[in-house]
Amino acid sequence: MRKTSKKSLGLLLAAGAVAGALVAPAPASAAVTCGVTVTYGLWKHIPDTATWNRSWTWNFKNCSYNVVKRKVVVNNGPDSSCRSIAYGVISTFKATETNTLGVHTMQYSSTPAC
Q1: CA distances from 69 to 9, 74, 92 (A)
Q2: Cβ neighbours, 10 Å, residue 32
């Protein structure tokens, strides 16, 4: 049986903790700051086509004390409806962007007031 020193064991545990911290995802609510946050998934190729897809998620957290109205403008796709967002509320919109031979559809553009 091999003996392991306390120093080696400590280094091993520390390395495992760092690796776990790098891999473990943060809770969804912690990732959303005030205002707009857009996160993108990885591009995925659709077999036997010239098309790639990736999902994206729009989050808007209202940190003002008033109700705000916002919508998601999508290039080459339908925009979201106007949303009334109360203080402290996170509104979410999800879509899938498509790229076929360089032509993008359902691309996130902006978040104007409405």
Answers
A1: 55, 17, 13
A2: 17
Q: Please tell me the pTM assigned to this model.
A: 0.69
Decide if 43 contacts 51 (C-beta within 8 A).
Answer: no
pLDDT < 70: residue spans in the chain: 1-32
Burial (Cβ within 10 Å: 0-12, 13-18, ≥19) of residue 74: buried
Calpha distance 47→21 (Å, rounded): 34
